[in-house]
Design brief:
This protein has 5 helices and 4 strands. With 145 residues, the protein is of the alpha+beta class.
Amino acid sequence: MDILNSLFQFLDENTWIVWLCVVNLAFRLGIAWQRWQFAIALQHHPERIQATLDFIKKLNSLKDEEQLELLDNVDKEGTESVFKPQSNKTEMSIERVNNMLFAYAKDTNQFLAQGASVDEIVKTLQVRFPDRSFFGDLPKDNSTN
C-alpha cells in the first residue's frame, strides 16, 4: 500500500486525467485499426471471410469434442486452414527418363509417383493419395502406355 500511496502523491489530479484520456484514445484507435483491417480483408478476400464464418458456424453447432473430429479439413491441432483453400485436385507433370515415368506436382514440384507406364503411376497415386485426384499432360512421345 505504501507504493500506491507514494504513486498517488506523485501524480496530481490533472496527470491522472491526461493518462486516462491517452489510454482511452489508444483503446479506441486499436478498435478502429482492427475494423479497418477487417474492411480491407473483406474487400480483397471475401471468400476467406466467408470460409472463416462458415467454420465458426460449424464449431458453434458442435455438441461435444467427438464431433470436432468429424469436421472436414481440420488438422490435428483442431484448426482449419481457411486462408488456404483445400482442394482434392492436383495438377501434375510427367517426365520420361530412360524407360521410367516420373510424376510431380506441378505447383510445388513434389515427387508423387514413378512407374514404367501411366497405369502404374495411376495405381501408385491411388494407393498413396486415395482422397485426391490428379490431372495433367502426358509426355510428348506416344510411347507411354
